[in-house]
Amino acid sequence: MNTHAQLPNVKASTPQSVGVRLDVSVVIPCLNEANSLAFCVEKALTAIRSAGLHGEVIVADNGSTDGSVEIAEHNGATVIRVPERGYGAALKAGIAAARGEYVVMGDADDSYDFSEVPNFVNELRRGNDLVMGNRFRGGIKPGAMPALHKYFGNPGLSWLVNFFFGAGVGDSYCGMRGFRRALYDKLDLRSSGMEFALEFVIKATQIGARISEIPIILWPDKRGRPPHLRSFRDGWRSLRFMLLYAPNWLYLVPGGLLLACGLALIFWLLPGPRQLTSRVTLDVHTMVFGVIFTLLGAQILSIGAFAKVFSYAARFDRGTISLKRLLKRITLETGLLLGGVIFLAGLVGCIRITWGWAAGGFGPLYQIRQILFWSTWLFLGIQIIFSSFFLSMLGISRETYIGDYELK
To answer: CA dihedral defined by 249, 255, 261, 266, rounded to 10 degrees?
Structure first.
């Protein structure tokens, strides 16, 4: 039976007593969804009653001008007016007003079947903290999702979420999901836009929440207008957001590889030229690239350290146990000592070569390899010293101190 068949316009009642604790709250973000909103509210209320649950439907309206507010209220929903624009802003306001132990969220365009609400509640009652809908397992009806999203966008973003964060979900951007209110209160979600969906999954994974999936069907929507989603703009926003939450992959991995390759080239070419084939010989010019790779890698690693401290102190990254242990052992003085030793070693090497060059009357300089070698360490030392100062300042500015990284 097609659950998207038109429902009668019957106003259903839900408990509205202040302070009453409910089983489930259904939260629906809305912006000009007059064509479809009544279907969503009625299905959700009918499903709640049929399952014997005590629940409510909250419509978080983001400034509708097409009568959506009146439709929601007429059909038995509680309307929360949200002046701040954005998918995430609407959901956060709706969830804040929810009184249910469990919350099920879904879009207002009738692409998700709110008759599934009891199935989400049942999964949550089995001990799961977050229950994701999976449209690829349940089925995507013809015309419900553009081919670009179906075959590339959503699978690609889900793969990246699993690769970067180990979430283990097959449909990370599904707009219908259920969760414990207690879990939501722990996550401290910040996103006001569509990145809210990703931030939820990432942070839930980081704190070790129990996540499961249930198959759901995606139906063609009834919005009667162009979608709010923009494929390439929002795809890029999603990728950018994941990279900001994954400083290891954005900074530490490429920076470490560059640093390792650069140092390997420097040490390999320090004794003299290396002949690869009868026509290819790597000499001092390649060693220059080794110096560049080394300094560039060290710079990227420094930025990565800044990003890690910021994400931890700002509570973006909730799973940095290794970072916490490391930063308890590494203080500003540790960084200054390490940078100072490396700088002095490089300085002594450069002075020794310069002294010999001056003794020869500043004629031709043949010790180019040695100059490149020792100047690399001199520059690295300077970089570590100033990076240590900035890392300390960053920690202090975020009410987090080097050597004392307990959250307040």
So the answer is: -170
